[in-house]
Every structure is written in C-alpha cells, then in structure tokens.
UniProtKB/TrEMBL annotation:
One of its GO terms (cellular component) is monoatomic ion channel complex. Its cofactor is FAD. One of its GO terms (molecular function) is superoxide-generating NAD(P)H oxidase activity. Catalytic subunit of the phagocyte NADPH oxidase complex that mediates the transfer of electrons from cytosolic NADPH to O2 to produce the superoxide anion (O2(-)). In the activated complex, electrons are first transferred from NADPH to flavin adenine dinucleotide (FAD) and subsequently transferred via two heme molecules to molecular oxygen, producing superoxide through an outer-sphere reaction. Keywords: Cell membrane, Electron transport, FAD, Flavoprotein, Glycoprotein, Heme, Ion channel, Ion transport, Iron, Isopeptide bond, Membrane, Metal-binding, NADP, Oxidoreductase, Phosphoprotein, Transmembrane, Transmembrane helix, Transport, Ubl conjugation, Voltage-gated channel. This is NADPH oxidase 2. Pfam families: FAD_binding_8, NAD_binding_6. InterPro entries: Cyt_b245_heavy_chain, FAD-bd_8, FAD-bd_FR_type, Fe_red_NAD-bd_6, FNR_nucleotide-bd, RBOH/FRE, Riboflavin_synthase-like_b-brl. Transmembrane segments: none annotated. Residues 19-129 form the FAD-binding FR-type domain. It is found in: Cell membrane. GO terms for biological process: defense response; monoatomic ion transmembrane transport; superoxide anion generation.
Length: 302
C-alpha cells in the first residue's frame, strides 16, 4: 500500500510547497477603486505574474485574518499591466478588507498605508477556451459576471490590435441579476465597449441581453414611464433591460439558426440549477450530423 500512497503524497507535498513559495512573493496594491453598492476593485502587481482570461486567485490579507484564503475571479485582461479583482462587501472578511483599505474613510488613502496582500495563483477555468470558438454565448448570473469582465476586456484589446487574426467573430452575452444595484459597476465596462464598437462600425460583434429577475411595484412603474427614452434607465445602455428570465429554448434555436454548421461555445458562471438548464439546451439543440451546429457547454459554479 505504501508504494501506491507514496507517489501521490510526494506530488501533493511538492504542489503545496510550490503554492507556499508562490504565496510568499511580494504583491503591491497599486489602486483601490470604490464602486457603487459596496463593491471595491483592488488592482495589484506581482513580479512574474501571468494570467489568462477568466482565471481566479486565492487572496489572503493578514491584517484581516492570518489564516483565511478566499478565491476571487480576476477581472482584468492579460493585456493590462496589472491584475485586479472585484470584491462585494457581504461578510466579515470582505468588510475587514474594505476597512483595511481605508474605504470607510472620506479622505484619500496613501498607497503605503494600504494593507499587505498575499496571492496564490492564478488557477485555470473553462473560460480560457473562449477564443477557441468563432461564436460564443456568455452567461453570467449576479456576481458570476466577473470572469466575463476579463473576457470582454481581452476581446477588445485583441480586436483593436489585430482584428483579422481574431478567431472569435460573435459574442452573445447574457447577464441575469436579482436587483438593480448589481448592474452599476459592470455597466460602465459595457458602456465603454458599446461606444467603441460603434465608433469602429462593428456594433454587431457584441450582442448583450441584461435580465432583471426581481423588482417591486414602484420600480416597475418607474421603468414603464421611462421605457421610451433612448437609453436604458438602469444601465445607461442603448440595449434596454429585460424583465424576468430568458426563454433559453428560443435563444438557443435563434442562435443555431443564425450560425448553421458552427461549433458554438456556451460559457456559464452561475448556480448549479442554471447549469443544468443550459447543459440540457446545449444537448437538445446540437445536431447529430457532424457538419451541423453543435453547442459545447462549459461551466463554473459558485
């Protein structure tokens, strides 16, 4: 038995030593940005740090806890000279990080006063394969939109640098949120992409649908009164926010009809229930003929 156990245990110990060494490397916080609805963006730099789109890291802040490590999806693009995470303040540890970064104070916080951070990673996810397809469906639920911030930024950098060599030609982006507050920090990125795509006369490259799955009567009345305005009252985007949940069967059939004979990547970051739905739709809308349309499902769950 010890012969079978010794090999895996040796590999495990080597992996733990590598992670320990990597987590001890110096990390510098270059900027902390406070977004609406108690969400902060932490921008960092680390020597030799290399990432791909949609990857995640483990973060430890000794000023908050000397033992706790928490996973966060990277929201920056590989083309940027820093890496960043978005942290929504929803618990004791995130509240401690919020205060340690001086976000609870009104005055400007000097960089040398920012807390020390330890980073382990990055680690790979299914989102890395997004550039392997000509057509992709990106589905984010709530804070599950964070890996797609990295994807959309990277797509834009690649598109501006050399659009002819970019295999990815069409993105269908879906974002499902329970309340309006969650839209605020990510809508800025979509507004920027929307404006830049229109300047380059390629507004069709990115199609996005934003769904609000929960609202009260007063909000519904406000939406109806402002429905005729040019831009959406919630996000400020030209694409109006939709209410309720998508009819996934119709969405898959529509996309299949527009891209016959294609391999379409379906990427989800969201709950297990939604993963089951999209997986079933990917199977049922894929054709048996190898030359027909095929949906390839990839998921991250939280």
């Amino acid at each position: 038995t010890w012969k079978w156990v010794a090999g895996p245990m040796f590999l495990y110990l080597c992996e733990r030593l590598v992670r320990l060494w990597r987590s001890q490397q110096k990390v510098v916080i270059t900027k902390v940005v406070i977004h609406p609805f108690k969400t902060i963006e932490v921008q960092m730099m680390k020597k030799g740090f290399k990432m791909e789109v949609g990857q995640y890291i483990f973060v430890k802040c000794p000023a908050v806890s000397k033992l706790e490590w928490h996973p966060f999806t990277l929201t920056s693009a590989p083309e940027e000279d820093y890496f960043s995470i978005h942290v929504r303040i929803v618990g004791d540890w995130t509240e401690g990080l919020f205060n340690a970064c001086g976000c609870d104070k009104q005055e400007f916080q000097e960089a040398w006063k920012l807390p020390k951070i330890a980073v382990d990673g990055p680690f790979g996810t299914a989102s890395e394969d997004v550039f392997s397809y000509e057509t992709v469906m990106l589905v984010g639920a709530g804070i599950g939109v964070t890996p797609f911030a990295s994807v959309l930024k990277s797509v834009w950098y690649k598109y501006c640098h050399d659009a002819t060599n970019l295999k990815l030609k069409k993105i269908y982006f879906y974002w499902l949120c329970r309340d309006t507050h969650a839209f605020e920090w990510f809508a800025d990125l979509l507004q920027s992409l929307e404006a830049q795509m229109q300047e380059r006369n390629n507004a069709e490259f990115l199609s996005y649908n934003i769904y609000l799955t929960g609202w009260d009567e007063s909000q519904a009345t406000h939406f109806v009164m402002h429905h005729e305005e040019e831009k959406d009252v919630i996000t400020g985007l030209k694409q109006k926010t939709l209410y309720g949940r998508p009819n996934w069967e119709n969405e898959f059939k529509t996309i299949a009809g527009q891209h016959p004979g294609s391999r379409i990547g379906v990427f989800l970051c969201g709950p297990e229930g939604l993963a089951d739905t999209l997986n079933k739709q990917s199977i049922s809308n894929s054709e048996a003929d190898p030359r027909g349309v095929h949906f390839i499902f990839n998921k991250e769950n939280f």
